[in-house]
Amino acid sequence: xxxxxxxxxxxxxxxxxxxxxxxxxxxxxxxxxxxxxxxxxxxxxxxxxxxxxxxxxxxxxxxxxxxxxxxxxxxxxxxxxxxxxxxxxxxxxxxxxxxxxxxxxxxxxxxxxxxxxxxxxxxxxxxxxxxxxxxxxxxxxxxxxxxxxxxxxxxxxxxxxxxxxxxxxxxxxxxxxxxxxxxxxxxxxxxxxxxxxxxxxxxxxxxxxxxxxxxxxxxxxxxxxxxxxxxx
Length: 232
What we know:
The protein has helices at residues 11-27, 30-41, 45-52, 58-71, 73-89, 98-113, 120-132, 137-149, 157-173, 181-195, 199-212, 217-231. By secondary structure, the chain is mainly α. The radius of gyration is 17 Å and the shape is globular.
């Protein structure tokens, strides 16, 4: 399906955007990560909105677009359009595999806006991202997410679990404690075990997630209590 968005940028604007994104990437958003992780754990998307409205920060634009698509597709449209624009402008500045990862997300978001989803192109890019950056916990988490949500016969939750487990190991080894992608990956590990019918293991994973991130409201008040009830 061909997108109807106008994606052409002037050369001057491309250069400016690439510079802004490069500066943002060089800091890896570490200054804001503590506050924004807190917001993620408390489901405070208004804090994320304030952040992405102010700076170019692709990891948070990616997450904010996903959240908006769940709640308000009309509001998501300009953010998805801008996300694509920023990803395309940042192509040469992004870490290895991240262009493919974010473009995979762009295709998913654009197709969801049109209430249509064919995952082949998106999944191909997600796998390519992992091939290019096999030790990057972000590419591993993203590809796992893509496989987790892809409809049959394209999805593969067993393969997704393997990617999430490797991502979590790499997040830990690389000390990415304040990155919101880490508790997200840990949540998906629990959900993969849950989907596979291993509720007890899912409970243990969710409990470990809550031990490391005790403020995670969704896990604390919704997901873990429901898991424990089903495990009894």
